[in-house]
Amino acid sequence: MPVLLQIAMLMPNWMDPEYLLNWLGDWSLWGTAAVVFIECGLLFPILPGDSLLFAVGLFIARDAISVPLWLACVILTVAAFLGNVSGYYIGRALGTSLFRNPDAKFLKPKYIEQTHDFFERYGPRALVLARFVPIVRTFITIVAGAGRMDPRKFFLWTGIGAVLWATGITLLGHALGKVKFIHDHLEPALVLLVLISLVPMLIEYLLARRRGRNSMGEREVGV
């Protein structure tokens, strides 16, 4: 895996989940919860949310983090949910006014445009699907808030997304954490995680194509 190792060496330490968890030590779970909360709600998209969740599950399985799995899942899911709620109310209060400078480092106008298109395409389901899409998961709640999405509907969909994302990826890491090969080859495991995270989007894309073909067939029959 020389290519993966070269890529890992180019990443800053704060993007390396193994380095972060070792550095945080006894505070690794709470540090991960803070990262998840910030990435999901405080307009800072360049954080290793997916890989950290996976690594927490893996570390718990290897007893490197002495916290019950159920407690870790609850804390991380709550952090993901509250992060999105914060982003939602930031969006309600400020709209998209923060995304006006094309030269901004993080709050680029193109990010909010891409997220808006994503929301328009998938509707409320976007709050679930976006959990698995870096950058989009940070700004989807801003768009929901700016668009004055009904709070009850928002809480429902973002809650579902929080459970599937935070709990799901942590459980995946735990399930694979007892496999020695996975523990000894974290970088390839994280690449696998990225591929798995794309599965919901692939499924939705295939379903959209199927719906499109069906609607075309109905129009032809009608003609």
Task: Set down the secondary structure blueprint.
Blueprint: H1 2-10, H2 17-24, H3 28-41, H4 49-61, H5 69-94, H6 109-122, H7 126-129, H8 136-146, H9 151-177, H10 180-184, H11 186-197, H12 199-222
Label this structure with key terms:
transmembrane helix, globular, DedA-like, 223 residues, 12 helices, VTT_dom, cell membrane, mainly alpha, Membrane-associated protein
What does this structure look like?
With 223 residues, this protein is mostly helical. The protein has one domain. Helix content is 75%, strand content 0%. The chain has 12 helices and no strands. Helix 4 crosses helix 11. The longest helix is centred in the C-terminal third of the chain and has 27 residues.
Q: Quick summary of this structure?
A:
It is built from twelve helices and no strands. It is an all-alpha fold. One of its GO terms (cellular component) is plasma membrane.
Helical stretch tally:
12
Head-to-tail CA distance between termini: 56 Å
Write down the overall geometry.
globular
> How many structural units, i.e. domains?
1
Which residues form runs of ≥5 with pLDDT under 50? 1-11
Secondary structure: number of strands: 0
Q: In percent, how much strand structure appears in the residues?
A: under 5%
- Main beta sheet, described? none
Helix content: over 70%
Overall mean pLDDT: 76
SSE arrangement, N to C: HHHHHHHHHHHH
Based on CA atoms alone, the radius of gyration comes out at 19 Å
SS-derived structural category:
mainly alpha
Membrane topology: Multi-pass membrane protein
InterPro entries: DedA-like, VTT_dom
Protein name: Membrane-associated protein
Pfam families: VTT_dom (PF09335)
